[in-house]
Write a structure and sequence with these properties.
about 120 residues; mainly alpha; about 55% helix
Length: about 120
């Protein structure tokens, strides 16, 4: 567990986010496998590493921060305008595509090896 936390910290320092994610997941699995009263110090180190990983400056993290900020702004502000009803769209179903007319086609059973077609069993 100490090794996994150490690898996670080293990967976070090098900004190797995929390696850090993997090391943190391995450390989390090891921490979950142990009883709660064992390895308390390692759990604290793991929590600190998770915080550092969550605070990374990636585009995904920026988007999450922006989404949270806009959600907080919207909570007390104006309500969005009601959307137009889509009842008409739901009522009119699209037409199925036209079926291709293949004409009168017959399969020669004799050519396929089933014998002549005029015999009855």
């Amino acid at each position: 567990m100490q090794q996994a936390i150490g690898l996670a910290n080293m990967a976070i320092n090098k900004k190797n986010w995929s390696a850090a994610r993997y090391a943190l997941s391995r450390a989390r699995v090891l921490a979950d496998a142990l009883p709660a009263n064992v390895a308390v110090a390692e759990r604290e180190r793991l929590a600190a590493a998770r915080k550092r990983f969550a605070a990374r400056n990636t585009p995904a993290a920026k988007k999450v921060r922006q989404a949270k900020a806009t959600a907080a702004k919207r909570a007390g502000g104006k309500k969005p305008a009601p959307k137009k009803s889509t009842a008409k769209k739901a009522a009119t179903q699209p037409k199925p595509p036209p079926v291709r007319d293949l004409g009168d086609r017959f399969i020669s059973r004799a050519a396929l090896g089933y014998g002549p077609t005029n015999e009855t069993r």
